[in-house]
Automatic annotation (TrEMBL), chain A:
Source organism: Neptunicoccus cionae
Any one cellular-component term (Gene Ontology): plasma membrane
Annotated catalysed reactions: a quaternary ammonium(out) + ATP + H2O = a quaternary ammonium(in) + ADP + phosphate + H(+)
Matching PROSITE patterns: ABC_TRANSPORTER_1, ABC_TRANSPORTER_2
Membrane topology listed for this record: Peripheral membrane protein
Domain ABC transporter: 24-265
One Gene Ontology MF term: ABC-type quaternary ammonium compound transporting activity
Quaternary state and interactors: The complex is probably composed of two ATP-binding proteins (TmoW), two transmembrane proteins (TmoV) and a solute-binding protein (TmoX).
Protein name: Quaternary amine transport ATP-binding protein
Key words, A-Z: ATP-binding, Cell inner membrane, Cell membrane, Membrane, Nucleotide-binding, Transport
Automatic annotation (TrEMBL), chain B:
GO biological process entries: choline transport; glycine betaine transport
Annotated ABC transmembrane type-1 domain residues: 149-332, 468-647
UniProt xrefs under PROSITE patterns: ABC_TM1
Protein name, UniProt field: ABC transporter permease
Family: Belongs to the binding-protein-dependent transport system permease family.
UniProt superkingdom: Bacteria
One Gene Ontology cellular component annotation held by this UniProt entry: ATP-binding cassette (ABC) transporter complex
InterPro entries the record matches: MetI-like, MetI-like_sf
Keyword Signal: no
Amino acid sequence: MNQSVILECRDVWKLYGPNAGTFLKNTPVPKKGDLGRAGLIGAVRAANVQIFKGEIFVIMGLSGSGKSTLVRCLSRLVEPTAGEIHFEGENLLNKSDKELIQIRRSKMGMVFQQFALLPHLTVLENAAFPLDVQGVPKAERLARAQEVVELVGLKGREGYYPRELSGGQQQRVGIARSLAVEPDLWFLDEPFSALDPLIRREMQDEFIRLQNMLHKTIVFITHDFDEAIRLADRIAVMKDGAIQQVAKPEELVLNPATDYVAEFTRHVNRAKVITAAALAEPLSGDSFSGTVPASATIESIGDRVEAAEHPFHVEQDGKIIGQITRSAVIDVLVGRR
Amino acid sequence: MGRWLTSGRVFWLGLFAVTWVLSQFSFQIYKALDARWIIRYPKKWQLPLEDSISSFLDWLVESANVYFFTFREFTRAIAALLEAPYQFLRNLLIEGFNTGYGDSAVQLAPSLGWVAVVVCAIAIGHYARNWALAALVGACFLYLAVFGQWHSAMITLASVLIAVPIGAVGGLFLGIAAYRAPWFNRLLQPVLDLMQTVPVFAYLVPILILFGFGPVAALVATVVYAMPPMVRITILSLHSVPEEIQEAGRMAGCTKRQIMWKVLVPSATPSLMVGVNQVIMLSLNMVIIASMIGAGGLGFDVLASLRRLDIGAGIEAGLAIVVMAIALDRASQAFAERSQRSLPEGNLLQRHPWSSTVLLVILANLVLGRFIPALQTYPDSLTLTTGPFWSDAMEWVNVNFFDTFEAIKVVVLQGLLLPVKKFFSGIPWAWGIIATGLISWRIGGWKLGIMAALMMAFIAASGLWGKAMITIYLCGVSVLIATVIGIPLGIWAAEKPNAGRVILGLMDTLQTLPSFVYLIPVVMLFRVGDFSAMIAVVLYALAPAVRYAAHGLRDVPEQMIEAGVMSGCTKRQLLWRVKLPLATPQLLLGLNQTIMLAISMLVITALVGTRDLGQEVYIALTKANAGQGIVAGLSVAFIAIVADRIVNALAEGQRRRLGL
Ligand SMILES: Nc1ncnc2c1ncn2[C@@H]1O[C@H](COP(=O)(O)OP(=O)(O)O)[C@@H](O)[C@H]1O
Ligand SMILES: [Mg+2]
């Protein structure tokens, strides 16, 4: 993965309540009790995040933990109380309204939990809306909208109005709209939370398919840990407005930074998260039943390794880095590890 | 005994006892102390408000300058601005376009003609919903032609058609401004409160003085009357557009203006259309009332026939108002509920079938009308009149049921109206102020208490205490009766879906009728006086009591009812122990609406000879005394505001107690 940072927030605070700004100036590092006494809500507290180009960055936390507020600070839909937000190396908070509008028109897209479609526009017009407000000529913007509508699999429904569509279809329109301007940075605020579990699964697959084609930089919000580990390159866990840990899914499970994260990850199906690399141990014999890639999850190789007589080689970048044994896999599968 | 005597009960019983004693014996107290001020507010303490307002208006009209021109020129300019489109519509609908005057007049183009207007109405009905609505609206307009009400109805329609766009667009812009600028919103809210509670007659007077007698003054009054709800609905519906939709707009890179016009306003359109429906119905209501200041039309016909005691003509014109109200209401409601449909493909004719048909009919009518005048103006010989029928029917009713009606009237008067009247009229003004303050304090806190006392003091200081008490008594009795009838009807409607559809449908229709209409049958059956006024007010104010009761009961969560059933409640217990307590906040809201409607109707009943504040306003109108009208109008508004705040505080308290 190319490790260039596209979006970074440094020590971002968002407090709701009276005189939040002055309060934070006087008490630069307030405790939770201080906030409560001042009648303030710490929606986001001292958040530091770096988002790399091309990765799927998932922000995870229970409802009310400040995920939406944080992502809205990142896109400056909400004005942070303090901190800096750098987008492509420039501080987003210093941009004028005009510059901000330009950035949003060309570089950012966002998908919303309740879809946020415009009820008076058809599917096609909704998808074309971001181009419409830029003044793109009608024929051109409808052609582009047609492309994205087909991309999300809604061909044939261009003339429908949002209320004539199912929830899943509506969110497809939301996705199409956010992709119409070919954004570099794609925000999704719990895009599938309002959908039924089966549809949610289908939409996740769809999302993975899209990302494999488009390779966007993605900030994805969810309260569903299973969803997070399915999609994420890295996960930030939030609690009460503060980020508890930022890590790869596997690290989060194996080395939780706080009790809260440990508690959170306890009931996760570890086989889905832990990779062969984490279980690799030094080679002990000469007979092997096969080779598995280091990045493969235990879930995907478990059956094979467990059924085989001998350990498997673990291979990374063409080199053997160790072996993975039957008992190690069984430990993970039955939850001993 | 001890448990029963809570501090609340002691307070209310004590207050009532003191008030009753003072009211019963105020005259004796005055004699005993030889203090006449106890029962009469002394003249020399009266505020000279009336005169100052009147002379301020005189100054405004005579000599005030707004930068380069005088105020009078300013109002003239507004008048001209309104006059032009109004005259155009009148020409279009009634008189046709002429040049020259009198005998030398030459007709350039005829008016639309009744056939064209009916076809337009049908087209609008179909466009807004379906053939059923088209048939209804078409039938309503056809009725106006066949029953000889066409001319007056078109005058009324012309006024409505001018007032509605101004009211709706003006309201929209004011609402948008208030949405954008919080300081403007804070400024606007009290004005809106006042506008909705000051009786219409009160601002007719200054408008008359500023704009002169005639249709323009009526139009101004109509716009002023119909705009406030649109402002409120605009603010409300802009605020209720989901936050995410606005954020989606911002993320798409909308400018502020684009957010408003491409995101917020279109998303809020369905609720905004509800506002437009209100503007239409209020405009119709006001246009009818404003007939009195020279707008002409159906309202004028009703008033004139009531004065002539021409029962048949009065009922005919009244029915025409009803028909028109129904047509306008159903059509505009259908527009509000109308959902976007995909446009049909094809050429211009195929894409706009209705516009083209209507245009063709108008053109054809224009040409054919030259040769067949019956297409242009509905022929008199084919006009049906129901006037004699109504006169006969009324006479028959009066001959056969006079004694019954009279007996009912006497019983209600003696048994209810007069004792209550005596009670309220007897309360010495000073105690009245204190008691109102105490009641408001007990229910809504000290702020409300002080406000209420000050408002009552204003009424006393204006020398209107006596009339205010009559207003309160009439309003109180009417609201009581409306509630006693309305809540059981609402319960019935909620419990029995079939009956509910009929009852609520009827209430919807009742509510769309202009207030004026209610006077007609009442005056015919009971002649003038407090009793007639009360009946008219009850009829007018019934609808909200029924509706809120029905909705309140229906909104009780299913789980609560199931819990009640599983605890073994009988049907009756379910109603009294579960549903009604949970519906109280809604019932109180209904009560609030009932009071507001009752107060606004009371002013209209001044036309049938009550001696309350409404009469004071009406007298001011006939004498064109702006000061008197405004002071009396403010007094009515203050009563309404105090009542509103008290009932709202009650509802709020109840809601808190129920944890809703
Ligand atoms: N506009 C606001 N005013 C006051 N408090 C808010 C506002 N928006 C969010 N909050 C509070 O901030 C906290 C975080 O909210 P949010 O970011 O929506 O959480 P999440 O998206 O994780 O569910 C919550 O406690 C919420 O009540
Ligand atoms: Mg959220």
